[in-house]
Amino acid sequence: MSNIAEMSSPKVKPGIDPNTMSIIVTKGSLDWAYPPFILASTAAAMGLEVTMFFTFYGLNLLMKDLDLQVSTLGNPAMKMPMMGMHMGMPNIVSAIPGIDAATSKMMKNLMKKKGVAPIQELRELTVEAGARLIACQMTLDMFEYGMDDMIGGLEIGGAATYIEVATQSHINLFI
Amino acid sequence: MADQVLDAKGLNCPLPILKAKKALKSLEGGNTLEILSTDPGSVADFAAFCRTTGNELVEQNEEGGIYTYLIRKAG
Fold first, then answer.
1. Of A40, A89, A164, B2, which has the highest C-beta tally within 10 A?
2. pLDDT at residue A4, as a whole number
3. Active site residue B13
4. Domain at A110, CATH number
5. How far apart are CA A32 and CA B3, in angstroms?
């Protein structure tokens, strides 16, 4: 009986500070750069201790020079406001060279017009607020990225490093 | 009169919150910050921000699409 009661009681992780959050960042396109950096910068502004673990294409977001792109290829939900309506792009058009660049430029213009922060600014605010940024050693190695290409203040770690952080964080997200 | 005013008009989520946090940092505890925003999402966000951080949302208004918040810094 007591075991069942224990199992079903909604225990909040004991001994873990509720104001802690970790995010695994796995995507590196212009659109997917936003959720992790919006949440990390806001959480840090709200006093949370934030750790971000960048792996695979997420590493792209740590580059000194960011030139983020978005692709309409295989992205049927992406419909941009255009001339009073919303325009999607057939895959066969998306595949034409230059279309990604044009779409990315369009999205950046739209963001500027709507007062959406550039990723560089959100990243700076996140770092400034004291978030820990960890780059995945294995994917750095695999993609042959050097730390010289990346922003300063990064830590390097692997799966065990992240898991340790996760065991000490109340909120753990995968993006 | 607020001790400091932050004009966040035209900025979108999460910039009004991030700029407000920065402005609050430079204030002494008990002093107030007035924020102007055009982001309708900022209504729910400033309430949540204040509940979480312990800063006091003293008052909020909306007039002609401009939202005004008065926040008193905790401590």
1. A40
2. 58
3. yes
4. 3.40.1260.10
5. 38
Residues of B in contact with A47 (CB under 8 A): 52-53
Number of domains in chain A: 1
Q: Which of A111, A132, A130 is nearest to A62 (CA)?
A: A132
Chain B residues with beta carbon closer than 8 angstroms to that of A116: 12, 15
Smallest CA–CA distance, residue A62 to chain B, in Å, is: 20
User: Domain coordinates of chain B in residue numbers?
Assistant: 4-72
CATH of domain B4-72: 3.30.110.40
Per annotation, catalytic residue among B5, B7, B13, B40: B13
Domain containing A95 equals 19-174
B11 touching A, CB under 8 A?
Answer: yes
pLDDT (tens, 9 = 90+) of chain A, 175 residues, equals 455 555 555 555 678 899 999 999 999 999 999 999 999 999 999 999 999 999 999 999 999 999 999 999 999 898 888 888 998 888 999 999 999 999 999 999 999 999 999 999 999 999 999 999 999 999 999 999 989 999 999 999 999 999 999 999 999 999 9
Selecting from B12, B18, B21 the residue whose C-beta is nearest the C-beta of A115 gives B12
Q: Give the best residue of B9, B13, B19, B21 to mutate against chain A (max A CB count within 10 A).
A: B21
CA separation for the pair A46, B51 (Å, rounded) = 10
Q: What is the pTM of this model?
A: 0.89
Cis amide bond preceding A97, omega within 30: no
